Amino acid sequence: MANQSSSSSCPILCASFNQDHTCFAIGTRDGFRIFDTNSGRLCYQRFVGGFVIVEMLFSSSLLAIVGAGDKPSLSPRRLCLFNTTTSAALRELNFLTSILAVRMNRQRLVVILQDKAYIYELNSLKILETIDTVPNIKGICAFSTSLDACYLALPASTTKGSALLYNVMDRHLHCEIEAHRSPLVAMILSSNGMYIATASEQGTIIRVHLVSDATKSYSFRRGSYPSTIYSLSFGPSKQLPDILAASSSSGSVHVFTLAHASQPRLKRSSSILGSIIPDAVSDVLDPAFHHVLHNVVPAGIKSYAVIRKVDNVTDSSTSELLACRAIMSVITYNGQFKEYNLSVDAHNDLTWSLGREFNLLTVTLDKAVIS
């Protein structure tokens, strides 16, 4: 998923991880760069002008890039499919208005404009579907890369936080989810397409819905004071994601332990919320499942956080979850990459440490960043 910057003072205009989080890309006012996530090695760079979208297709040489408009060849209305092996454009698609988001998997290409979404067959670039949308000036969307449950989520309203989910492979509307009272500001689909997490402009509650039947599974309160959610990320999982992370304008990253929340609860929450929310939802509002990493980023600096690795430790005899360990990577739009080691024990206590940090703008080609 790519995230575009709205701050004119930040050197990074966009950031994205590939579908399995093994690589990431940044777009700047000078060009774009691609890094190996595990080593921090700069794998590719190109300096030809500003880019506001750089999307990768797994670890292949194919990129989908969109210019910032600082020169005619880099129009924000032109999508270029680019080969990093040959450093040449493969195909270009031109649109009447600016491209706000691009998503890909191995069979589909999705292009988001302010009031339309286009679905293409990736290999032939044959247009399969055109979806008329409500005004979506920020290009808010979510896309699951699984071919078995390949969904595209788009805002359904400009006045409330509802989302439309389209099955991109079978090309039909799957459902509408009414998640919040105020308009959506961020959403993410799990890689397997089973769950969708959403946040609204109010910024205090993050909700997780099961996509198959549009039912609410979890509802987390981040606090009483609203802040803008910049990104949402599920941990990789074949079933229920273990961890959900959210970066925000406060400079903190919020971590929600879904694996622990799914364990049976002994008693209902005694909070005020517990007295007014139905049982199925009130348990997971327990703040014990919510952890905050303070001051990860300077307040007001946009950031993009992903949970890229998760390892669960279970009791071999009972399958009870004993511990959950994860790696969280954070890109800050002032040019930093940070990686955190997270560990949640059987009592749901979180410990974390900064594993490494480096400047994305000063790394040179083929240099691995160790710390």
Automatic annotation (TrEMBL):
**A Gene Ontology CC term for this entry?**
phagophore assembly site membrane
Q: What name is this protein filed under? A: Autophagy-related protein 18b isoform X1
Q: How does it sit in the membrane?
A: Peripheral membrane protein
User: TM segments?
Assistant: 47-68
Gene3D superfamilies this protein is in?
YVTN repeat-like/Quinoprotein amine dehydrogenase (2.130.10.10)
Please verify whether the record's keywords include ATP-binding. no
Q: Which family does it belong to?
A: Belongs to the WD repeat PROPPIN family.
According to its UniProt entry, this protein's organism is Arachis duranensis (Wild peanut)
Q: A Pfam family name for this chain?
A: PROPPIN
Q: Subcellular localization, per the record?
A: Preautophagosomal structure membrane
Keywords annotated in UniProt: Membrane, Repeat, Transmembrane, Transmembrane helix, WD repeat
